[in-house]
Specification:
Length: 248
């Protein structure tokens, strides 16, 4: 199995974070893509769709070719939007995979008089998906009120979710020649990578580690699973985008 991990395209939260020193940070609990983000996703989709497929590529082609047979995304709106653009470009179905959502979940944190409170929100609903993303397929049903249970997830949940995702991938796609892409998020990407390569899995919080694996918007990282080994072929690939499209 070849595993392609793709970060969602630029969201409104990404822009707000970049401009926080001048405008402050105005966070949305479930942001949408910016116009630039849509262009990033379209560029990625066109790049992958243009790749010729060879059953027995040579070494150079093996390193650089991107051919996807199965496509998943988190159920956060920015990931669904990115995945839908890729699905349309590649002509393959997009499956929603709630477990690969960003660390924390769907929530907003507010502070008043020194007291912090977390909002109770539930993310996109089945009705919303039917209206706005009718082609999205769910690998398991979600509640009518939305896929997220509300609040902020416990700090140890991302690594638990990463275990569940790897178990699902192994069950569905190993051993095989499937080429699986997951549209996910920077924080969860780091949790999943730490689990795959056994990097300080005793520490649940990525922020407490002296290392961080950067993943730009719509960048691709590829990991091949061969027998019992995980082989990191490349990381944070953005060469298919012009410089003015790249955001990290």
């Amino acid at each position: 199995m070849q595993l392609y991990l793709i970060r969602h395209a630029q969201s409104t939260n990404n822009v707000s974070w970049d401009q926080k020193d001048t405008n402050g940070y105005i966070r949305s609990s479930d942001p949408h893509l910016t116009d630039l983000g849509v262009k990033q996703a379209q560029t990625l989709g066109s790049f992958i769709a243009s790749q010729p497929f060879s059953v027995q590529p040579n070494v150079g082609e093996y390193r650089h070719r991107v051919h996807i047979t199965h496509l998943y995304s988190s159920l956060m709106t920015r990931a669904i939007q990115t995945g839908t653009i890729l699905s349309d470009a590649l002509g393959i179905p997009l499956y929603g995979l709630p477990e690969v959502h960003e660390i924390g979940g769907i929530y907003l944190e507010t502070e008043e008089n020194g007291n912090s409170s977390i909002s109770i929100e539930h993310g996109v609903t089945p009705a919303y998906l039917r209206e706005h993303f009718p082609a999205l397929r769910l690998h398991q049903p979600i509640e009518e009120r939305g896929w997220w249970q509300g609040g902020m997830e416990p700090i140890d949940s991302p690594l638990i979710r990463a275990h569940a995702v790897l178990d699902l991938l192994r069950e569905r796609h190993l051993p095989s020649n499937d080429r699986v892409a997951i549209v996910t998020h920077g924080g969860f990407f780091n949790s999943l990578i730490r689990l795959i390569f056994n990097i300080r899995t005793d520490e649940p919080d990525n922020r407490n580690l002296p290392t961080w694996f950067s993943l730009c918007n719509c960048a691709i990282s590829r990991i091949d699973f061969v027998d019992d080994r995980a082989i990191w072929v490349y990381h944070n690939r953005t060469t298919f985008m012009d410089d003015d499209l790249v955001t990290c």
